Structure formats: C-alpha cells, structure tokens
Amino acid sequence: MPKPLLELICPAGSLPALKSAIDHGADGVYLGLKDNTNARNFSGLNFDAKALAEGIRYAHARNRKVLMALNTFPQPATLKRWQQAVDTAASAGLDAIILADPGLMAYAQKHHPQLRLHLSVQGSATNYEAINFYHEHFGIQRAVVPRVLSLQQVENVVRHTPVEIELFGFGGLCVMVEGRCLLSSYACGDSPNTFGACSPGHAVRWQQTPKGMETRLNGVLIDRYADHEKAGYPTLCKGRFEVQGETYYALEEPTSLNTLEMLPDMHRLGIAAIKIEGRQRSPAYVAQVTQVWRAAIDAVKRNPQGFKAQPAWLAQLDKVSEGSMHTLGAYYRPWK
After folding, report:
1. Measured between alpha carbons, how far apart are the two ends of the chain, in Å?
2. pTM for the full model?
3. pLDDT reported for residue 176
4. What is the pLDDT of residue 180?
5. Does the annotation flag 174 for ligand binding?
6. Hey, which residues does 273 pair with through a beta bridge?
7. 269 and 216 Cβ atoms separated by less than 8 Å
8. Kindly report the CA angle at 272 between 306 and 3, in degrees rounded to 5?
9. Pseudo-torsion of CA 178, 119, 35, 195, nearest 10°?
10. Residue 334, pLDDT score
11. Helix axes 79-92, 49-61, angle to 10 degrees
C-alpha cells in the first residue's frame, strides 16, 4: 500500500462515517471498538465485529488504510479485554493499532509481531527521547504528537527520531496534557483514561431555568446559556466559571484547532500524517472536513511555496468548529 507524505487520517465513529471519509478523500481512517478500550466510548459510536469487517473491506477495496485506537489504559482486573482487542485487531486485518499503554505494546509485539504499532496521543510522548524509547522497545512506527508542542518543538522531535510523526490538524481542542485528564473523573468518577469518555452522557444534565439553559456534569454547573447562545457539550475544561467575581471561560474557550495555514511548514518538516479529530461527529461533518483537507493537502503538495489557505476552506471549517471559532493552539504559543 502506498505511503504518501502528509497522509490524511480521518475519524470514523461509525460505518457511515468511515465510508464518508473514504469517499471524500481520506488516505486512512481511525476507529474503535464498542467498549472502553478506546477514548471515544460513547453510546451509539464505534464498531462491532460485523461493521469492522465491512469497514476494512470497503477501505481496502479502495486502497485506503484502517487504524484502530486502543488508547485507554487497562486496569488489573480488566486487562484481558484490552488484550483481546489487540487480538481482534490482528485477526481483522487492520493496518495498524494506536496504543498508549506499554504493557499492551509488549503484548502486541510478542503475540502479533506483524502488526504495525502507532503511539497514541494518549501516551503523552512530548519529546523525541520518549518516542525513541517506544520505538526501540516496542517497534512503534508512528507517533501522534500531543497538542501541547509548538511547531518549533515538533521540528526538533522530527529531527531526532526515525519514527513517523502524525499531527492533529483540525477538530476539538483538549487543553490538558493528552491522556492524563482527570477533570471528568473528578466530577463524575469516570476517567477518560479508563472509561474512555470525557463527560459521559449518563452524568450530563440539561435544564432550562429562569436564568437560562444550564448544563451540569454530575451536578456540577458547567455553563449557563442565554437564549441567543448555542449550548455546547458540557466539558469541565470548556465551561464558564466565576473567578474573582468574573464569569468566563477560565480554562479554554470552546474552539477548534485548525492548522490549515501551517500546511507548508508541516510539508517541509516531513510530517507523515495529519489527523482530523471528531469520531463523535456525524458522517456529514466527516465529509465536509475531509473534502476541505483533501483539497488543501493536494494543493500544498503541488506547490508548497505558493500554498495559501483559501477563504472558502476556512469558512467551511468554521461552520463545523466549536463556537464557530478556530485557533492554532499550542503550535504558535507557549503552553501554560
């Protein structure tokens, strides 16, 4: 299978989303099983055995890749489930699995040495020494770099590792060090690291009050919206809180990462793949975002020096961005 530089890797939360990504130009998709072995463990998402087989058949028939995220952390009593997920990935014919836990990497390497391994962003490897450790000990061939590095820091990583580097290009922006968020666990007892979901649906409540629409996570007030405001999904990191008498987005505004204008730099650095976030989003979202990024990546490959992010592309992406806003995130600013 060909390995073009700057692959476009798109989210597939369902079989329709997978087909939508493939049909609109993704080089590969990433997906998860219907359990807490992946970090998008939401009701109605992910793949059972039948859908997985159909998705792989559909993608491979069109010479595209299917990657599986196994990027939560098994607990002692449930380790077998995660190991079985590795077995499932190997027997299904997936192109790679995306892992965060070193124990699972060792298991995969021992029992399925032919299986390609990627280091998940949940592994929180923010420097080349950490990435090279996973490469030397477990044969990791690609690493998804956390969204906490500047582009200069990414360049330093690329220069000092033989591992392919994959960067997030577009989608929801988490403000914590990837893979170690405990905010959701603090509020409702379910950690993204083990349960597989930040702000799980069973803990979310919406209530219309005389003061506005209130959203709560296990009783914790996350936000209150005026009638003219569009309510977002209640996550603690993007809630509005009162701090020293002022109510505002104290941690991060609801906004999406969008690195379209940085594509020439990513091309120059030899970035292996651009990842689009959003397995919880609809097939229509996947189609819209994939189409724009396919056009942009093709354009930068044709003429890196002359590339310019088209206003129409940015307008299309802003339509599906959180809060209709976008940011370059940590790529352009020091992380606090």
Report:
1. 41
2. 0.87
3. 60
4. 66
5. yes
6. 7, 166
7. no
8. 100
9. -30
10. 55
11. 40
pLDDT of residue 179: 62
Tokens, residue 135 = 């490469």
CB atoms within 10 A of CB 51: 18
Give me the half-sphere count of Cα atoms (radius 13 Å) on the Cβ side of residue 117: 28
User: In the prediction, which pLDDT does 3 show?
Assistant: 44
Contact between 212 and 225 (Cβ < 8 Å): yes
pLDDT at 116: 98
CA gap 66, 61 in Å, rounded? 11
Phi and psi at residue 281, in whole multiples of 5°? -90, 170
- Give the separation between CA 258 and CA 255, rounded to whole angstroms: 9
Distances (CA, A) of 241 to 51, 229, 249, 252, 335: 41, 16, 6, 11, 21
Residue 237 marked in a binding site: yes
Count of H helices and E strands in the chain? 10, 15
- Strand 164-172 and strand 256-258: the pairing is antiparallel
Q: Give mean pLDDT in consecutive 10-residue pieces for the chain, a chain of 336 residues.
A: 74 97 98 92 91 98 98 92 96 96 97 97 93 98 91 94 96 70 81 79 90 91 88 83 88 84 94 94 96 97 95 91 74 60
CA distance 205 to 132: 43
Q: Is 181 flagged in the annotation as binding?
A: yes
Residue 57 CB partners (closer than 8 Å, separation 6+):
none
How far is Cα of residue 322 from the mean position of the Cα atoms in its chain? Answer: 15
Sequence length of the chain is 336
3-state DSSP assignment of residue 231: coil
Q: Taking all residues of the chain, what is their mean pLDDT, rounded to a whole number?
A: 90
| Secondary structure E strands in 102-201 | 117-119, 142-144, 164-172
